[in-house]
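User: I want to check something. If I give you two sequences, will you return the structure for each one separately, not as a complex?

Assistant: Yes, each is folded on its own. Here is the first sequence with its structure:
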Amino acid sequence: MMTWGSTTYLLVPLLVGIGILIFVAILKWAYSPKKSSLIERPTKASFKDDYGMLVPIINPENYADGEKLRQKLLANNIKATLAFTLEGPQIMVWPKDEKIAKEVLKKLV
C-alpha cells in the first residue's frame, strides 16, 4: 500500500499549480487576437526610397493604369511591384530588370 510522505503536501499542490499555469498559457495563446485578418488593412504611402533595392521605373497616373502596366511586365517575366508612394503610385522592379522593364514599357506607352 502506498503511504503519503511529508513532501506530498507540498509537491501535489505545486504540480497542480504548474499544470494550471501551463493550461492558462495555452488558452491565452489560442484565444489571443490574431495579427492577420480577412479584411485587408489600408496601405500606407511612403517615400519611394523606402523600398530597399527596388528601383522606381514609371509613375502611372492612377492605380488602375499602374496595375495594367505591372501585369504587362509580369507577362514578360519581369518581377514588378506597384507601390503607393507620397509622389503617387510607382512601378518598381529589381535593378537587374530595370533596363529590360523600361524597354518593355516604352513599347507599351
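And separately, the second sequence with its own structure:
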Amino acid sequence: MANDPFTIRIFVPDGDPEGVRIIDRMNWTGLGIVFPREKWPATKHRLEFSRAGVYILVGYRAEGDELPTVYIGEGDVIRNRIESHFQNKDFWSRAIVFTASNNSLNKAHVKWLEYALLKRAEEAKQSKPDNDTTPQEPGLSEAERSDTEGFLREILQILPLVGLRAFEVPKAVAEPHKEAPAARPASSTELNTVIVPAQPDGFEKVFLGQHCWHAIRISGGMLPKIKYIAAYRTQPEMKVTHYTPVASIEPYGEEGKYKLIFAEPAKPIGPILFGDAPQGSMQGIRYTTFEKLMKAKKLTDLF
C-alpha cells in the first residue's frame, strides 16, 4: 500500500465517541460503520445495513487471550447476517462494517472482499480467525477485480484508524542486532537486557522452540535500547537459565504489546538463582544490563 497522505471523516450520530461511528472519505463510494455490540439493537435499523457489504466482528474469547478473535463475513443484506451473529456468537464486542453509499457492491464484490480480508488476516497472524472455512477466490472480471481491490485498499487504510491492526503484517519498531547479531558490548551501564518470566510450557514451546517471545509490554523509551532477552523460569525452576540477542521487536496484537524475535537460538547461562530476592520479584518483566547478566549468580545481582 502506498503511503500517500489521506483524510477520513468520522460522524458520531449519537454524540458518543465510543458508540456508533460513520466513516467516509472524499472521492470514495464506500462507507464504514463501527459500533459496540451493545449498540446493535438500537443501530440495526439504519438504512446502510440493508445493503450488501462485508463486516468484521472483533473480540476476545478469554481474559488471557493475547490476540483478538475476528470473524469476517459478507451478506446481500448485512443486517440479517449480523443479527444472526448477535444471537449466536458471544465472543465479539464490536463490529466494523463496510458497504457502498451508492449501493454499488454486489454479491460477487463482497464475497471477494471477504476472501481477501480473511487471506490477509491469516498472513498477518495478528488475530485468531473464527471462520470455519477459507472461501475460494470468487471469479471477477478484470475491471471488477481492479475496482474491488481499490475498495479493499481503502478498507485497509481505515481499519488501523478505528483500532484494528489484525490485517497489517507487523513491521519492526527496533532492530538492535540487524547489522551485527553476535556483537557483545564490553561493558555497559545502560539497561539493555529484558528478563521475562516464563512458564514451563511457554519456555519450551516459544522461547526455545520458536526463538521468540511475545505479548509483553515494553515502555516506549526502552524499545530502542533492548539488545538482549533472558528467560527467568518460574516455579519449580525459579532461575534464569537462557539468554539470546534480539534481532527485532514487532507490535503484537491490539493491546500495545510486542513480540521479540531472536537473532539466534537461546543459549544456556548460569543458572542465576532466585536466592534471597524478595517474593514477587519476577512477576513481571525486569530490565538489567548485559554486563550484570553475564556476572550474576543470583537474582539480586541483576537489579
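Because they were folded independently, the notes below concern the second chain alone. The chain is about 20% helix and 30% strand. The mean pLDDT is 92.
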